[in-house]
Amino acid sequence: xxxxxxxxxxxxxxxxxxxxxxxxxxxxxxxxxxxxxxxxxxxxxxxxxxxxxxxxxxxxxxxxxxxxxxxxxxxxxxxxxxxxxxxxxxxxxxxxxxxxxxxxxxxxxxxxxxxxxxxxxxxxxxxxxxxxxxxxxxxxxxxxxxx
Length: 147
Known about the structure:
Elements: H1 23-61, H2 68-91, E1 94-97, E2 102-109, E3 112-118, E4 127-129, E5 139-140
Antiparallel strand pairs: 1-2, 2-3, 3-4, 4-5
Helix pairs in contact: 1-2
């Protein structure tokens, strides 16, 4: 993420979905995932706009206080992001990058735990990485599974 905006964490004790995807299932789920991610990315952009307004307010008068209506809009945007995160969790995927819309699909290939990964400018799931790996460590699916 490009800016330091605090986004909602899962409630304490909440366990993420443990679904494991095949490549076929990951690609099939993109119909739904694509829509949710588009909404989450757009809402995150709104949150960044609110943050910019707050930064400007702080710069002009030092108070950094948003008008009540703007604060409510900001809270609503955060609540919508929480909702999108829950929807993605219910599908069994994790949104890893709110600006790019990068999503991880937990998978096990030949007994090895991996993450298939996808972002909105891709037609299908074409990359993977190690669990806990960075998004710059994405490698082509062809290295992992036969087409």
